[in-house]
# Entry
Amino acid sequence: MDSLPILYSLQRCPYAMRARLGLICAQQSTRLREVSLKRVPDEMRVISSSPTVPLMVLPSGEIINESLDIMLWALQHNDPHHLLDESSKHVTQLELVHRHDAKFIPFLERYKQATRRKDFSKYYFRDECEKFLVEIEQVLSGQTCIVKDKPCLIDYALLPFIRQFSRVERQWFLSSPYQQTHHWINRLVQTPIYAKAMTPFPEWQNTREDQILSHV
# Structure
């Protein structure tokens, strides 16, 4: 067990789910610690001055605290599903993920908050999210996944966030023009990889027992 990395995680956090998906796709067994950010464990505070999830501690003691970096670390060690493309498309994948994180996620967070407050500004934030979603919908109109006809890094990196967007106003999304995106979400969430990533774990602060996040 000491040879396995430790992942501090939170199931409801899309960043943490992105990290989990990457680890499962890479078949990287991990000691998982499900935490509550309302009462952050002291162990996390020692590791990071601003403890958030995901937070990974490698056996060497190295810390990785970005979800995409966790995916890349795992897949660069083992990529059995060929999610990393060695061609120029790999660069395109990373560029699109970075653009998604910079342009889509900030408006997604505001959209969720505005909807909970029944704020009319939710339409503005939704419209801003749609600017990115239109691009994804156009790509998916010609193929089943974002880069090619099978899931790659970018599909799993974007899935937790776009799925979250689709659930903010569920009925609106189901009748929206984003039908190919809807089918893409459904295909991916029905896979064993996604089911494994969504496995619930007891809160680590209560048990102090590491759970093993294993591959499918």
Remarks:
- The chain is about 55% helix and 10% strand.
- The two ends are 19 Å apart (CA to CA).
- The domain at 88-150+152-190 is CATH 1.20.1050.10 (Glutathione S-transferase Yfyf (Class Pi); Chain A, domain 2).
- The chain has two domains: 6-82+194-213, 88-150+152-190.
